[in-house]
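ok trying again, last paste got cut off:
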Amino acid sequence: MKINLLPGMSDPGISGEKNDVFIFDIAWRMKTRPLHFLVMLQQDLHVHTTYSSNDSAIVAEQTIALVAAVKHAGIVGISDHFDSLVDGYFEEYEKEIRQAGLKVGVEVDGHAWAAEAANYIVDYYIFHCRDRDADYHSLDKLLATGRPVIVAHPNMLDTNLNRVPIECLIEINNRYVWRTDWKQFYSPFKDHFKFVISSDAHQPNWLGQTVAHYAAEQLGIQEYLVF
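nice, full thing came through this time. structure:
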C-alpha cells in the first residue's frame, strides 16, 4: 500500500507497500481530528462531461470542475466525444481541462473521425473499434501520432482483439464489462495486451470502477498506468 500525505498534513510515520489496485491516501489529522482514510483509484481516463452534448446519459452536474473537485483518481483524464468538439469547442475544452490539472483525451467514434482526430493535440485517444476493416486501419493512424490509444469497451463493440495492434491499450470498462461474458472475451488476451480500467462516467455517481476492478482481478490482469 502506497501512503501519500494530503496537503497540510504531518507525517505520522506510517509506511506501506504499493498496492496495484488502489492508492490509499492516508491523512493524519493532528491533535483534535481523527485519522481519515481516503480511498483513491490510481487512474481514470474515460470520463465524460457536459461537453459530450450529444449523449443523453450526460447530466448537467457532470462538469469538468466537479470531476476535478471530486478527484476520485490519482490521474484523471477527460475524454468527451470528439464529434461534439469539432465545431469550435475544442480550444475551450482543452483549456478548461488543462486549467483543472487533468489529462486531455477524446473519444473517437470509429474510422469516420479518426483522421481528423489525429490532427488534434491531446494526451491520448479512446477509440470505438467495431469489427470492420476501416476501424482496424484507423488504429494505425492514431498510433502513428505517438499518443496512447485505448480501445474502448471492446466486449460491447464486438471488437476482434486478434486484429488490434499490440501497441494499443485495451479497456476494461466499469459501465459495460458486466454486460457480456467478460471471462470468455478477455481471457485469451490477458497476457497479450496492456489493460486500463475506466469508469466511463457520464454522471457524478458513476465515478467508480468497482466492477471493472473485480473483473480484472478475476482475470489476473494488472492495470497499466498510462501516465
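cool. The domain at 42-219 is CATH 3.20.20.80 (TIM Barrel). The chain has one domain: 42-219.
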